[in-house]
Design a protein that fits this description.
This protein is mostly beta strands. The chain contains three helices and 35 strands. It is elongated and about 115 Å long.
């Protein structure tokens, strides 16, 4: 059949037109399948186990790791102030194409704060492996992009500015909360990530910060919401901004899986000898968390003026009613003394301290926390002035032939302080001035009823022990020295030549 005959047939036969349309659909569908299917995204959250010790990966048994289902108390343990890890896995993307994915989360649930802002996927948990089970191996240098501060007024109290989205197998170019049209309900936030994949199945990861009573007030955090208030959503995926198709996924976490929490902070203030006020010393501490092995930390005060270095604890979860206790001990460090230890316990005022102002040993604070509380303890240290070790001045009074002169009078004057000391040479001509202050300016002079001396006075700054400061008597042919210094033979300073000043 020729094409002209086919066209004539189609123009006269509705049945033939339907047949042709079916062929077109079949051809297009086959083309899509040949490319690997429609682009898709899948949202998962982490079950970290009933004790909170299961890694966020795809190989953990017992229903743990990355899941698409609801997470309850028997499967996870999180605390207010922590970041819940999430990942988005993609399939059938075309490398080099620009895509837009819209993520949503409940800022307010039942009038209380739930997930108040977003953060980095591993801020609270180190053993998080977002691309595990998806890519053959996580590339070593994933792409990151800062998470902007939520523009809703009053939403973020302490949202940090260093939190990020992370992507393996692609590059992110923009993150945007959009306008009111894209976020019609301020209680349910939407944020769009723009990215270009390098592979067909990249992975995107982030965290959701669990609202904390210590920031929003007692009873205003998600711990007071019944049911499953922690919702993270996939709204859409597409090649045009703010897509609404390809999404409609909701992952929820039960309130029973999140415990109220408290924090404590250790502030190190160091008063230095130098005027900078900046201490480069790392001060060692031992911290004992509730029901945990003690850990060792160091805090460096690198802030000039009244500030100090700060250590902030991990969230201390209240899995049972009562007060949680942590112990912080500053260990002794050479060259510093503890000047003050003060704690601010805003709710109970029952945190205790145990320290001795004369020593840095035993500088302990016993921190008692209630849910939603932040207890702050400030350790203030004073740098000790460097004190040089005491030094000795010694030598011998003798004739030119090397015979010792007995009973010569030696006078030492500290020109820095005015202090004067005298001593006599022994039967062999030796003398000594022990335990002198270093770094001071001194003179030592000698006199004898029977002898005059070629140089009867030496002047020097004492840096270390000077053990060969000798005086030589003039021979009968030498001129007498009545005053001043006519010649200045050098003393020997620990085997090195030391010129008089």
């Amino acid at each position: 059949m020729k094409f002209s005959q086919l066209n004539m047939l189609l123009s006269k036969s509705p049945l033939a037109c339907g047949f042709l349309a079916a062929l077109v659909v079949l051809f297009v569908g086959s083309s899509v399948l040949a490319q690997g299917g429609n682009p898709a995204a899948n949202l998962e959250q982490c079950r970290n186990g009933a004790l909170g010790n299961i890694p966020c990966d795809s190989s953990s048994g017992g229903g743990s790791g990355w899941v698409t289902g609801n997470v309850g108390a028997s499967q996870s343990q999180w605390a207010e102030t922590q970041y819940l890890p999430y990942r988005m896995t993609f399939t059938n993307l075309i490398p080099g194409t620009t895509y837009y994915v819209v993520i949503g989360y409940d800022r307010i649930n039942s009038g209380k704060h739930a997930i108040d802002y977003l953060g980095t996927y591993n801020t609270s948990k180190s053993d998080v492996f977002p691309c595990d089970g998806i890519l053959p191996a996580c590339p070593p240098n994933p792409d990151t992009i800062p998470i902007p501060v939520d523009p809703v007024p009053g939403n973020t109290i302490n949202q940090p500015n260093d939190q990020k989205f992370t992507m393996w197998g692609g590059n992110m170019t923009a993150v945007d909360y959009g306008s009111g049209a894209n976020n019609p309900n301020p209680d349910i936030r939407r944020i769009m990530v723009t990215f270009i994949p390098d592979v067909s199945n990249p992975v995107l990861a982030w965290g959701g910060h669990v609202a904390w009573a210590g920031e929003w007030g007692a009873g205003q955090s998600a711990g007071g919401i019944s049911g499953s208030p922690y919702h993270m959503r996939l709204y859409g995926l597409g090649t045009s901004p703010w897509p609404t198709a390809g999404g409609n996924q909701d992952r929820s976490l039960a309130a029973s899986a999140v415990a109220p929490a408290a924090l404590f902070k250790i502030i190190k203030v160091a008063n230095t000898v130098d005027p900078s006020g900046v201490a480069i010393t790392h001060f060692p501490f031992t911290v004992t968390y509730p029901n945990a092995t003690p850990i060792n930390i160091t805090i460096q005060d690198n802030v000039s003026g009244s500030g100090g270095g700060v250590y902030t604890s991990s969230a201390v979860a209240f899995t049972s009613p009562g007060i949680q206790t942590a112990t912080v001990t500053e260990n002794a460090i050479s060259g510093w003394s503890l000047a003050d230890l003060a704690c601010n316990d805003p709710l109970n005022n029952d945190t205790t301290t145990d320290w001795n102002p004369q020593t840095a040993t035993g500088s302990t604070s016993t921190i008692k926390m209630s849910p939603g509380e932040t207890v702050t303890c400030t350790y203030t240290n004073t740098q000790l002035a460097v004190t040089a070790a005491p030094a000795d001045v010694a030598g011998r009074v003798m004739t030119e032939s090397g015979m010792g002169i007995r009973g010569a009078v030696l006078t030492l004057t500290n020109l820095s302080t005015g202090e004067v000391k005298t001593t006599l040479s022994n039967p062999f001509g030796f003398y000594k001035f022990p335990d002198l202050s270093s770094d001071d300016l001194y003179t030592v002079s000698v006199s004898s009823k029977r002898y005059s001396f070629i140089n009867n006075t030496h002047t020097f700054t004492l840096r270390d022990s000077l053990l060969d400061l000798n005086f030589i008597a003039a021979s009968s042919g030498s001129s007498m020295v009545s005053s001043g210094v006519e010649s200045k033979p050098a003393g020997i300073y620990l085997g090195r030549k030391v010129e008089d000043q």
